[in-house]
Amino acid sequence: MSAGKILVVDDEPQIRRVMRVILAGENYEVMEARSGEAALLRFREFLPDLVLLDLNMPGMSGLETCRSIRDTSDVPIIVLTIRREEEEKVEALDAGADDYVTKPFGKQELLARIRAALRRSPASATSGPRTFSTGDLEVDFETRKIRSGKKAVRLTPKEFDLLRYLVSHAGKPVPHRELLQAVWGPDYGDQTDYLRVFITHLRKKIEPNPAKPQYILTEPWIGYRFGN
Q1: Regarding beta strands 151-153 and 174-175, do their DSSP bridges make them parallel or antiparallel, or are they unpaired?
Q2: Total structural domains within the chain
Q3: In this structure, what CATH number is given to the domain that contains residue 46?
Q4: Using alpha carbons only, what angle is made at residue 184 by residues 6 and 112, rounded to the nearest 5 degrees?
Q5: CA 67 to chain CA centroid, nearest Å
Q6: Domain holding 136: CATH number?
Q7: What's the Cα-to-Cα distance from 148 to each of 58, 86, 101, 214, rounded to whole Å?
Q8: What pLDDT digit, counting tens, does each position of 90-132 carry?
Q9: Are residues 12 and 99 in the same domain?
């Protein structure tokens, strides 16, 4: 039985071969693409559960490809990069990626990142809140429908899990580490740049005035809090 469908986008044949061996060994179904343009075509045909996307490609860049996929889909995206600069990693998250892995990487690290991207938050529809509603914001966690003001809002899976966890702890400061481990998994805890980017995106989507948030509040040196 397939563990899921993964689209691997990388212009290096050796990397694609290694990826295929690793992923097939874990029962993932694999489709390959060697460019951003090919990735978009394969994406529509293959309908993957997750995308592994190299940032450094000729032609259409990894960031452009990531943004194009994110414009039409909430599928988890993990970007692969050879650079260690924090700025590039944050730029990838800002483009819509759920996570990043720096080359060279080990098999277990890659598989752990894939599992984290595919997992659902423990604050699921059965254990967490079912709905949240105020005058400006309505969230149905069972149907995953969100309205902010008069417009419908679409969140990525991680944005949605992050919002649900915050709402389920409304009124209480939630530390950075707790949020990271609840939404991304136990291997996370120090990646505060993840939260900064995702919280910024959430505020842009659900806050009437993202510069002066009224729902997702910052607790200095601690984490974040939903509501007063």
Answers
A1: unpaired
A2: 2
A3: 3.40.50.2300
A4: 50
A5: 12
A6: 1.10.10.10
A7: 39, 32, 33, 13
A8: 888 888 898 988 888 889 999 999 998 888 655 444 456 788 8
A9: yes
